[in-house]
Amino acid sequence: MAVAPGLFTGQDPNAIAFLERLKAPSLAHPLGTDENGRDLWARLVFGTRPTLLAGVSVIALSLVVGSAAGLAVGYAGRHVDELLMRVIEFFLAFPQVIWALAIATVMGRGLVVCVLALALTWWAQYARLMRAQVLVVKEREFVLASRALGQRAWRILLRHLLPNCVSTVLVKATIDVSLAILLLAALSFLGVGAQPPSPEWGAMVTIGRKYLLDYPWYATFPGLAIFLMVLAFNILGERVRDVLDPTSKTWRA
Amino acid sequence: MAIHRTLVTVLLVFTAFVGNASAQSENVLNVGKYTQLGSYDPHAGALDTLWWTGNNFYESLLDVNDDVASLRPVLATSWTASRDGKTFTFRLREGVKFSDGTAFDSTAVRLSAERAQALKKAASLWIKPLARIETPSPTTVVFHLDQPNTMFLPGLRFLLIVSPKALKEHDKGDQAQGWLRDHTAGTGPYVLERWEPNIIHVGKKNPHYWRGWPAGKFTTINLRHVYEPETQRLMIEKGELDWSENVTKDALPALKRNANLTVYEKAGTSIMVTYLNTNAGPTKDPKVRQAIHHLWNQDAFNAITGHAASPGPLFTPILGADWKLENPYPFNAERAKKLLAEAGYPNGGFTLRFQSQKGDVDKRAIFELMQAELNKLNIKVEFFDDTWPALVKRATDWGATKDPNTAIHLFGYFRPMFIPTALDFLFNMYHSEGFPTKGGRNFTYYANPEYDKLVNEAMTTGDRDRALRLERQAAELVWKDAAVVVNGRIVDKFVARKDVKGFVYLGDRVSFRYYDMYREK
Which terminus of chain A has a smaller tally of CB atoms within 10 A, N or C? Predict the structure, then answer.
């Protein structure tokens, strides 16, 4: 749906049809219409991409930056570790939504700004997790042997440490996508996220909330869509963990 | 026995508390406001201060009648004008006191007028033609103008009179601006007791109010900022509000079915426009502005908001019921595209910024409609909203620098007719002396010498027919120049609890005289 929304609907998600505004679900409009007469099913379909893309982008950025930082910090140890851990703790100290709001105030509104703002605070979690993994693995014999043989640090990081430490962060990343989607929806709800006429689901819930009393379908369907996507990523995260965790029953089986 | 006595005591105390609360709430009016306020100082604030405070906290020599078409005496009992229109003599009402107990007299009028002129904000614009004031007696004040001006007399509505004692006592070298920003010292029915900006204003009865306090009047007014119309709706349905000023068309059917509520729908004098920045960005070019106006879908707006079309950039009936101004901008995307091409934007390719008042669903609808049409021509529109005082400040501050990087190109605005003359719109909204930096509402910074000349002549001529012709020409010219997109004429909607009576509609959604209302028993 995110890749090819046109396959799921023939309607323009931004086409205003003022005579069709706030219509209840029907054959012509399966999920009803919004306050401007726009088809809600079309907006939901076309909103899959920005919603999903934004959530995945936050985590992808955080994963890459955080993992790289955690790898380097964990391997370097001593003073570098001490210094960078303080930096990581600084970023972990503030609630993400507050950070994102503050950054959006300075940098302007929009989904891209919110993605960057969230990634700016989220990377620290991956850095800390990756560092913890590296601290254990770097004392293993094959790593010590590589160092004794004179292998360069970057080769050790990429060939030995990263493959053996990445599974935990990947599991976290998969589950975090759902959380990112929720946070982005919250930021859209607060008005700093997706800007009109974007059919991003959080923004739809924001506007639909104003019509909840008399036109409940408006906020309900995008809210349900967010719920289903979050559920899907949670289940995916558990499956990934089952596959990658050597102590799990699935792996042993 | 001891437990029994304790229980009875608790019950009695509780009942007394509840009973007392019920008795108090009869005299308390809880209002859900639509708009916000920046300052209570009637001489240093913007225009919103004048109508906010002028209806409930301060008064002037005169005011508009309930029909907004004529004037009535308030702090004056009568007035005369000289033949040449340059001298106005007012006889003042006796026995009036300010809320701090000071007697009202001609000196108070003079001091307030001089203060307004010195501070050069919104209030000064309304008395701009005033050259000299005489106070031959405590109950007589004489205004002398340099030349006749038809706006002066009705404009006195916004020369609000402040207690001289308060001006003196609270002057810290700032003419008491610091104190008057969040305190009041007027002759009006209420005194500001507490103000939490953007949350609540609490007004208590002025014990010295000259009209007195018959039984049933609201002695306390709680003006609450509740930005979301749906929240106001829930509050009024539950009885947490008695009067709601932010009501949407979509909520009307359910509200009308509610037997505990009274719904008011009134077509008044207010028009809704989108100011187009004539000084910066693509909207500096008249062809771009005209193109934008051609993309205005009036029918869609009417269907979404319940408002109507406005046949002009002002409340046109004031220029004669028989006068029709032809709309130069029918909804026509092809025409818009042609104009953009002539302006050098055949494929669009620019971004405009639209600012709007927080909680105003009509302006949001304007934005969405405009954005939808402009997007089709590859023109992006960015939206942001803020409280009304913040928007005014931003637009005013911008006038000092005119930085193109921070320009707002579209500014959603609605404008009632505050005084019964077309010049209220023509001067305040479009004249170069009406820039926000000078206290006016010309947020478009439109400055056309030909237009100014028409309006100046209309203001100063004693010939009413000639003035009417000039005003009509000015209206045609400013619409031709597309200084604004004319979005519609507002149909105001309010909701009250069934037992709240006495509401008098003053033609707009911001002027309310809470003293006139009462709770029916």
Answer: C
